[in-house]
């Protein structure tokens, strides 16, 4: 019996995620925001490095009104990592790196994080593995198109 994300939607092996052609769609000077669950920190660093980004900081999301999932502890926190590639100046946004908000549908991210990202003048904005379309963003994901993400990346 499958549980967790594999029971809810299509997943990809880590090596396939690492091998996505991100350099084909990302500017040489760019920022990556990467959602990472607490037990997957090593894998998060692998993905970030494989895509050519250097870890800088993170934003914590505490999911309220949710028991959370997990084997060691019930995970009520998810992390949004920030990585940079090339020459990117620090944002110096005067907002805390902590958001407390209700959990939504499994793996669906919060609007408050998107608003923090949008405070920075970053364009274009591309969301990979998106669950829904967002105005001002290129949203790519199986839930939107029914296509494999590798196919969608080739079509950009």
Question: Would you mind describing this structure in some detail?
Answer:
22% of the residues lie in helices and 25% in strands. It has 156 residues and is an alpha/beta fold. It has a 4-stranded mixed β-sheet with strand order 1-3-2-4, with helices on both faces. A two-stranded parallel sheet has the order 5-6. The chain is globular and about 40 Å long. The termini are far apart. The model has no long low-confidence stretch (mean pLDDT 88).
Radius of gyration: 15 Å
Order of strands in the sheet with most strands: 1-3-2-4
Please summarize the sheet with the most strands. Answer: 4 strands, mixed
The SSE string, one letter per element, is: HEHEEEHEEHH
In which range does the helix fraction lie? Answer: 10-25%
* Helical stretch tally: 5
Q: What separation lies between the terminal Cα atoms?
A: 36 Å
Multimeric organization: single chain
Overall number of strands? 6
Q: Which regions contain 5 or more consecutive residues with pLDDT less than 50? A: none
Structural class: alpha/beta
